[in-house]
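If you are new to this repository, start here. Below is one unmodified record pulled from the training split, so you can see the exact layout before writing a loader.
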Amino acid sequence: MTSFDDIDIETAKISLDDLAEVLSAIANKSRLQLIESLLEGTNEFSELKEIVKLSKTALAHHLEKLVSYGILINTSRGKYKLSEDGKVLFFAIKEAYIKSQVKRKMEAKRKADYIQRMYTDRKQNELDIKFVRLFPMRVVSFQAISESPENEAWMKLREWAEPKGYFADLEKNPIYGFNNPEPVQGKKEYGYEFWLVVDPDFESVEVTVKDVPESFNVVTRCYVEDAFRDIPDSWKKILQWIKKHKIKFAGRCGLEKVIVPSHSGEGFILDIYIPVVEESIPKDLK
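And here is the target side for that same chain:
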């Protein structure tokens, strides 16, 4: 097998069939484990069997496949090492994956799927209350005013933030939303604004940047299957709970924090934040 260092990538004629075959040879978790385990040097068959936890027959099949494509070398009976070309191929694929948007999107999807599994089975009438302090934060703001401003504001946010990788880590870069301006009876149009938290020293002339002061909040979670039903219902319940316990409102707008975003407008998760006066919370609730 020719060394990759000897190939001019720009002029080399590559058979896509051959490329597909080589990629298929390593497109298996057990084979990738074998390759990774041999990065430090030679291992015996019995040692490799312990690493991948496969039967002798299955392990032999995988090793034979990797040896046939020159990715591994059978140095002697039962001993294997990674070839130089195999090492170059493995690190090239790994580096490309780490640098790509694909990695971030897969991590975001995995996190979203995990959270959704956690809350899909929750009963909608449950009210899970917690207290959360939001420290001062710098945000970028996206607002729309129309008959359906949430979708329009979200698309503005998404078009700016998604290509930059901000959706990959919603803990580092949380998203909050709120009505602005509030709906008025008899008027179809109202406003909605999204905030995406960015680094404290972030500056931009491309988007609106705001600094938000600290707040203390009563928070509940809302799993949204029907936005017109579930979100207003959760708001009603948390406001009733606050009034029942005679907690004072802080006079600032409530926020909806995106936990799992939705591209379709359905099947997403929100945390609802209501700013309150911390000193007014009964001691038995803290």
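Two things worth knowing about this chain: The chain has a mean pLDDT of 85. The longest strand covers residues 137-146.
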